[in-house]
Every structure is written in structure tokens, then in C-alpha cells.
């Protein structure tokens, strides 16, 4: 009894264009992001996906909506798949915010949460997934914290390594949750 998980990040946002760390702010896709969301749908609509789970933040919801528009694919929003809450840093320049990212591995951002708290939150999503979606293939649309949770919980990668590594965007990551 396992779940195959395909992880994709939300498509490119207006804040990505401007180097802004959106965090828990909603964000909107840029024109480029809207094209990438449609491409994601083209890639995944015939990929054996049973359901799509997405962060409830607007940029992730918009990605899922554009990718699966006109299909009967169930799209389920889950707040646990959100990005790390940067608190007072939501909306600040990404380079400035992430300069000391490792400092916030266990210490929450002022007014927000730590990376470990964000990863634990997304880990609770993983713990619930097999109860309904065992023996299926699902797509998850999320953020950096979502991917780190999958790398940490499923693949056993230490958060201390992930927090210092480059995100290395690509078209999807695959996981098997047993």
C-alpha cells in the first residue's frame, strides 16, 4: 500500500519576476507562469494522476486551475502545503530574506514560523495521504517547504542539508510514500 507522488512547484509568479519572497502572501502568476501552468497540465493530464493536491495560496491554486481547466480531475486545496511563513518577511526581497536562511531552520522568522515547523506541517499532509489515496498516483503543487518536506520525510534527507542547498527547479520530482 503506497502512494506515488509527483511534486511540481507553482508556476512562475509576478513576485518571482521581481525577486520577492512571497511566503504566505497570495501572489499571482505572471504571463510566463500562466503559460507554464498550461504546460504542466499538458504534461500531467495523461500521467495516471488520480487527484491534484495544491497549497491554498493563490499562486498555487491558479497553477492548478490553469493546468486542469476543463478536466474532471479533482483538485483539493490543503493549507499544510503552504510555503514557509516568513512572518514580517513575507513580501521582502528574496535575496535579503534567504541570506540567513539556515538561521531560521529551528528559530521562527519574526512573526512567522521556522523551516522545521513548515516541513513538519507538510509532513502531516503526507501522514494523512495514504488513508484515502493508497495505491494511486497523485500530483502535489506546492512550494520550497513542500518539496523539502517530501525530501526529508520520504527520502530521509537532513533539513540541515536542504536549507543550504540550491532549490534546483525542474519539471517535477517523483516520490513513493510507503
TrEMBL record:
Domain of life: Bacteria
CDD domains according to UniProt: HP_PGM_like
Catalytic residues (UniProt): 10 (tele-phosphohistidine intermediate), 83 (proton donor/acceptor)
Molecular function (Gene Ontology), one example: fructose-2,6-bisphosphate 2-phosphatase activity
Annotated binding of substrate, by residue: 22-23, 59, 83-86
Hydrolase among keywords: yes
Range of residues in the leader sequence: none
Cellular component terms per the entry's GO annotation: cytosol
Single biological process term from Gene Ontology: negative regulation of glycolytic process
Alphabetized InterPro entries for the sequence: His_Pase_superF_clade-1, His_PPase_superfam, Phosphoglycerate_Mutase
Keywords recorded for this protein, A-Z: Hydrolase
Protein name as annotated: Histidine phosphatase family protein
Taxonomic classification: Bacteria, Bacillati, Actinomycetota, Actinomycetes, Kitasatosporales
